[in-house]
Design a protein that fits this description.
Length: 311
């Protein structure tokens, strides 16, 4: 198994270690940073900068992408490691070449189920981690020295976990976890921010109904609402322009299991309008994810047709 040890800003770590978060945005001041060796669920460890130079926690890799600063703040808020957007923006503008750019694009690495250890749990900087490494480096459990580091991580996770956390871990891991044995990947439990990022990228940043690509007005909509048991899962999502998102949540618009748009007569009856929406009635979706697994699941669409749509 490959995992990543990433050089981590001490202030970012300190802020989030005092927060109760289910996900974090491990951001970079520039555009997308790719992790070709990581798959969703791979461990991603936090190696603090000087004067600490210790591994102090980590999380589980979900997705790496790039977003305008404004969208990153909307999606993750304080999970970016800052108390306010003003502070978050000042942190980034100190690090980019042109601080006058109105809405700079930043690299976003989404991590699920982050963990932050107290100092007595910190692991000294591993052998081979050169001082000139800026971003981080891969480690592999197939190599004895690097497997030993992962064993230390497992020991700390196990000793720190409460009963409830062990229950969560058992849900996340697709097969039994051997005590300090063969490593397995964690299936990331997505948070709201990760859901937005994954849905946005799955739809290639275009509205499913209209093809609109103006990113600030695009929103990740749950088909089966999260408050009613729906998961933060791409197959339970649609990327919609903000007005369509509102109408979808109200049941004025739905999508059939064969991916056709239906518009409720209630729009015309209640507001004597809606020509812009009725033009789409009966048409297939303009934009769908390329991956079949990321397309809306029929069972979620049927739920919306039967329980939300005002036919």
């Amino acid at each position: 198994m490959k995992y990543w040890v990433g050089v981590t800003d001490n202030g970012w770590f300190d802020y989030l270690s005092h927060a109760d978060v289910d996900e974090v945005n491990f951001w970079q001041p520039r555009g997308k940073v790719t992790f070709a060796g990581l798959v969703p669920g791979s461990p991603y460890l936090f190696k603090l900068k000087r004067p600490f130079n210790h591994i102090a926690g980590g999380g589980y890799f979900v997705k790496s992408t790039s977003l305008p600063l404004s969208i990153a703040w909307e999606a993750f808020g304080q999970k970016n490691g800052a108390q306010s957007r003003k502070i978050f923006e000042s942190m980034i503008r100190k690090l980019i070449k042109d601080p006058t750019v109105r809405d700079p694009e930043i690299g976003c690495t989404v991590l699920s189920a982050p963990f932050f250890w107290p100092k007595e749990f910190w692991i000294p900087e591993p052998v081979g981690f050169a001082g000139n490494i800026v971003r981080g480096r891969y480690y592999e459990t197939s190599k004895p020295n690097e497997a030993n580091l992962w064993t230390q991580v497992q020991e700390r996770l196990d000793s720190q976990a409460t009963w409830g956390q062990r229950q969560l871990i058992s849900e996340l891991i697709p097969e039994p976890l051997e005590r300090y044995g063969s490593p397995v990947l964690v299936k990331p439990r997505l948070g709201q921010g990760a859901f937005r990022v994954l849905v946005t990228d799955a739809y290639r940043r275009r509205c499913a109904l209209t093809g609109e690509s103006t990113l600030p007005v695009l929103e990740a909509a749950h088909i089966l609402p999260f408050a009613e048991g729906g998961a933060h899962d791409v197959s339970n999502g649609l990327l919609l322009r903000s007005d369509f998102h509102k109408l979808f949540d109200l049941g004025m618009i739905t999508v059939t299991p064969d991916f056709h748009v239906e518009v409720s007569p209630r729009i015309r009856e209640d507001w004597f309008n809606g020509k812009a929406y009725y033009r789409l009635h009966g048409l297939p979706l303009t934009n769908l994810p390329e991956s079949v697994a990321e397309r809306p699941a029929p069972e979620f669409l049927r739920w919306h047709n039967d329980n939300r749509f005002q036919a």
